[in-house]
What does this fold into?
Amino acid sequence: MSNRITKLFNIQYPIIQAGMIWNSGWRLASASSNAGILGLIGAGSMYPDVLREHIQKCKKATSKSFGVNVPMLYPNVEEIMNIIVEEGVKIVFTSAGNPKTWTSWLQERGITVVHVVSSVKFALKAQEAGVDAVVAEGFEAGGHNGRDETTTLTLIPMVKEQLSIPLIAAGGIATGKAMLATMILGADAVQVGSRFVASEESSAHQAFKQVVVDAKEGATQLTLKELAPVRLIKNKFFNDIQELYKSAPTPEQLKELLGRARAKRGMFEGDLEDGELEIGQIAGLIHDIKPVAELVNTIMTEFEDAKRYVGSL
It folds into this structure.
């Protein structure tokens, strides 16, 4: 199928594999691109030299379009952006920061820029900054999230009403039916994260992948709003946070409990007790670990089946 997003990224299907920290290395990104969607390397968990290595390996593993997701809150973001330019990456998704900071600089160097937002307000700011497209991510999403708790099926039509540039829906999307639903509401494409965590090519620890597969409804919750809202699986670390909340902690006390490298310990190293396990609510619908190509084929088959069903109503 062809639309504004497939043309913008030169991809077969309007699906973006989210650039998630500790999950989205070169293997996942290249497998996604080879399957006809846009693969993203998640730079948020990589030192600059590690990111360069992943980009170089991804270029060898696919001849198709791929990009890099860059959370702009990281202190070495300037070095990361320079590496992206030096390595010839042509697509960058930015998040966790002001899109005005890097959009023009990247576009002047021939790079397509997409910014991730969680509200109409920030979608409009991204459009004003000149980005080529926006990802609007609902409250259901895993990892760091919006403070307003706006759900995807509410957020997408509200953003669509205000936006003229291409719109990508994210948050709670793991099936072809959900893809069709968000596109009917106005999205040009979808960004899928949690479903690709439970893929063979994901760089997540096998133990974390299995936790995702085993997750049921209610297994995740948004917390740490005083720092940066994040959706986590309820494990010992999550329970420790809730226990601390009983004493009305200061942000400094929450930071002390959080410490450093919690996400790496949980998702990359497999510490299921004390690690930070970020995943979306849709984990309750994820029941297996499969190759990316098979996941993409399943999503697109469901999408076409759902279109035929809607047409018969």
About this structure: The first strand starts at residue 15 and ends at 17. The two ends are 23 Å apart (CA to CA). The mean pLDDT is 95.
